[in-house]
Amino acid sequence: MKWPAFGYARATTLGDVWRLQAEHGEGAKLLAGGQTLLATLAYRLSEPGILVDITRIEALRGIALSDGVLRIGALTRHAELGQDALVARHAPLLAEAVPLIAHPAIRNRGTIGGSLAYADPAAELPACVVALGATVVLASAGGERRVPAEAFFTGLLATALRPGELIAAVEVPVATPATRCAIVEVARRTGDYAMAGLAACLVLDGGRVGAARLAFFGVGDGPVLARLAMAALEGRALDAGAIAAAQAALAGDLDPPGDLHGPPEMKRHLARVLTARALARFRPASEMAA
Ligand SMILES: Cc1cc2nc3c(=O)[nH]c(=O)nc-3n(C[C@H](O)[C@H](O)[C@H](O)COP(=O)(O)OP(=O)(O)OC[C@H]3O[C@@H](n4cnc5c(N)ncnc54)[C@H](O)[C@@H]3O)c2cc1C
To answer: What pTM, to 2 d.p., does this model score?
Structure first.
């Protein structure tokens, strides 16, 4: 289908954005990498009056480390996340997720801010930021506010963004030597959105699980934090019994809708399989028989 008619304006400062939003109200739509937005325009799922191109705004760029927090600008492209030395060292889960997202052409343009704002329930980065216990930094003409990632995603393609706000950055607490994270998924073909996936972060104290965060994707309206499974792991040695307990607890955590990939029971089965796969990565090879 053809795009609807729309205006275009390039903002080079946040001030430009606030001015254009004040002028055009809800008719103004932010354009970042365009990898989702342009498709929604073609399908007439969105008919904005004007696209406000934010890609030249310096304040939304950059990756910086300060006081134990990695601040990742909203315009950081997926490909940059996969190549950045600070991300590799302090938030390696994000780098590990990148090859699972679509294809190189999309990763070269798509941004972390666009991915979080669109909030596709099968997308990798929303689940990663929830697993990492990150904070989403929102900016508007009135200033900044910070929302924990797990409260940012509010439903199907829905977020805590209010009219007039944009995502400025994501703040990720840096990994400690005891932090172990992994992302695993099942997709029909390489580069497809996941049928089901899991971003998992554990803090291991010796062989014991000090803290656990398991964020599933593709099995709900958005990232699903599996709190019962997390509780089943915490305080226990990460052995076969603990993993089985976490898998069993998922029955109370997940209520997946059926979708084009299959029925709810198939999603529940995949979630249990992915839990075992992710947690097995954190166990020393010598204990794998236990
Ligand atoms: C064929 C294809 C396959 C894909 N496969 C995957 C996949 O496997 N996994 C995956 O995670 N993603 C996938 N994607 C989506 C891709 O990752 C997108 O790049 C991403 O979801 C949107 O980022 P963007 O920068 O392109 O945003 P845009 O398309 O420019 O914008 C998306 C939405 O977010 C809003 N927005 C953008 N930036 C901000 C901001 N800073 N603050 C507030 N609102 C903002 C826009 O107004 C728009 O509503 C796929 C896309 C395509 C086309």
So the answer is: 0.97
